[in-house]
Amino acid sequence: MLITLDDAVTHLTKGDIVALPSETVYGLAGLALNVEAVQKIFAIKERPATNPLIVHTSSLEKAENLCEINNLAKKAAETFWPGPLSLVLPKKDVVPDIVTAGNNTVAIRIPKHPVFLEILKKLGKPLAAPSANPSNRTSPTKAKHIKELFGKASPPTVDGGQAKVGLESTVLDLSGSKPTILRPGMITREELANCLGVDVELLSTTKSSKPCMPEKQLSAPSPGMHQVHYAPKTPMNLYNSLGEFRDAQNFRAGDAIIVSEEKIALELRGIGFPECTCLSIDGCPYTIARNLYAALIELDAHKTNRMHLIFSGENKGASRAILDRLQRAAKA
Asked: CA–CA separation, 12 vs 131, rounded Å?
């Protein structure tokens, strides 16, 4: 059911859950400081209690009511907020433990979407808003994806158009001695290091079969840290070149091919594969990110037997986040 911005404010004020648009992906929003509302988010998503939520607020001043903002955090916030950057910082007591999965830190950001920001301002309260999808599945980037993912259990949804970024936010941990990216996003390691003037570490989320968490820690310090994540229902194979796809000889009738750029699509036609989904004309990572999840969800709806995704981008810059999502989706 599609609802208006004002309807959303009414639902949220009552402690209900609403799907909201953001610049990253659509989020399943509820009052962050209302334990019952947060419990509803976990229940709808079937999300494990060990996986914390990101808290969204409308200003740096309001964020200071929820967490301890150090000098590096202030510098990052002033540069990238509003925007697709979540900062992990020491939480204040006002933030319920259910939001942080029992951790003493909280992930927080200011979204860069006019509808989400206006709702935050009208509410005057922070919202917890993980991606509006069943846990570990592909995140929605259009309002219609909510119905495709949840079916009859779909929450009321505000249609804010297609998400402009298309991937979940970069998560930067500034609670310890070394700035560390816990989840790569379209704000890159290089941009963050340049902003902060210090080296920024990158925690791998794809090398281990276990969640990438500090030793002996039962809960993840951030969302999006499990090895298998962001996955379509349809099995997916990932290739870094057309040659690797051709050599694998895995394609069967009823399968679908997705390519990162038009050049690969043209080469596929030349070897007898006339149909494929193309994510960009020239391999631009920002265009690929914007179109990726929509392609996965829409091919899922067509009940494809298997997806074959050829991504030629390198593991650096903005392409790093795309490769991170694809590697984990392919492990499902």
From this structure: 16
pLDDT in tens, 39-66: 999 999 999 999 999 999 999 999 999 9
Which amino acid does the sequence have at 39? Answer: Q
| Residue that finishes a domain, picked among 169, 198, 219 | 169
44 plus 145 within the same structural domain: yes
Question: Domain range spanning residue 82?
Answer: 5-169
pLDDT 10s digits, 197-248 = 999 999 875 554 344 544 445 688 888 777 777 889 999 999 999 999 999 9
Residue in the structure block whose two tokens are 């949220």 = 12
- Of 28, 200, 171, 184, give the one whose Cα is nearest residue 103: 171
Most distant CA pair in the chain, distance: 61
Rounded distance between C-alpha atoms, residue 79 and residue 197, angstroms:
13
Nearest to 149 by CA among 5, 24, 294, 36: 294
pTM score? 0.94
Please say whether the beta carbons of 307 and 237 come within 8 A.
yes
